[in-house]
Amino acid sequence: MLSLEDLKKIRLEDKPIFDTHYQHYPPMHSGELFTTMISWGEYVEYRYAKIDDTIIILSKDSNGTVLHPPSGKFNIDLFKQVISLAEKEDCIFGFIKQAEKKLLATQFPTVKIEEDRDFFDYVYQASDLAELPGTKYGKIRNRLHKFTKNFSYTTEEIAENNMDEVHEFLKRWCLWKDCGSDELLENERKAIIYSMKHFFDFSLKGLALRIDGTIQAIAVYEKMNADTVVVHFEKGSPDFDGIYKAINMETAQRVRHLVPFIDREEDLGIPGLRQAKLSYHPDHFIEIYYATKESLRTTTSESL
User: Fold this and answer.
1) Most buried residue among 2, 19, 103, 175 by CB atoms closer than 10 A?
2) Edge to edge, what strands does the sheet with 214-225 contain?
């Protein structure tokens, strides 16, 4: 029977295990991507168990402990074990995606599922972000036009020869944002620094935008599955109005030939971030749900 002791902390040396798993079962949500989990490890404790062709993930932060549904070859017995463990240890059975939601409705109809809107991934047509077509993107095009009129810029891939400059830019960005005054921003700073330290280990890609020879914006991304590139980080100087519009469009133009979709991760319930992500008109969401603890207790006592 599965227990919490079976789940060990995710470490950098575990990457080959996840890479092999992703070849057969690619991640569909940015929160279950190895880069995300290992980079945010100081803010969220991630643990996992590898059982045959399946990986089980546990994530723990100040809001509680979440057991994720098994990823991999479907095993109803293991699925039941995860549900039972969540109930036994008073964990949340969450990070449930659409396919797993349908499975729960069929196999465990008494389990009540509620949406976790703050963790919906925003997924866009890469061509939309690259071209900004039609009237719905009119305001964004206007901001971008104003930016390009006022500032001449160049872009380049993040590589060995400009990595030190990227780090200098990130130091300036954190001074602008006063990262130390906000727990989330400070942990985002740590996540970015960790990702950049292991940029090549993680096979990340990135784009740097220069104005007057100085890097003033960056975007860091990777291919998540056959259809989707996920943008992990996008940062720009506050001194150049519209710079985020520019780095967003330039990134989309770089990746549109690789994949049809760009995942720009979740909004975490932050009002300004939600408004900004919605303004780009997502094609769809990767929806996330959780099971209520009351219905889980009822289910485990009756049918598991």
Assistant:
1) 2
2) 153-157, 205-211, 214-225, 228-236, 261-263, 121-125, 284-286
Per-residue confidence in pLDDT tens, the chain, 304 aa: 899 999 999 999 999 999 999 999 999 999 999 999 999 999 999 999 999 999 999 999 998 999 999 999 989 999 999 999 999 999 999 999 999 999 999 988 999 999 999 999 999 999 999 999 999 999 999 999 999 999 999 999 999 999 999 999 999 999 999 999 999 999 999 999 999 999 999 999 999 999 999 999 999 999 999 999 999 999 999 999 999 999 999 999 999 999 999 999 999 999 999 999 999 999 999 999 999 988 888 776 666 6
In order of 76, 104, 168, the CA distances from 263 in angstroms are 30, 26, 27
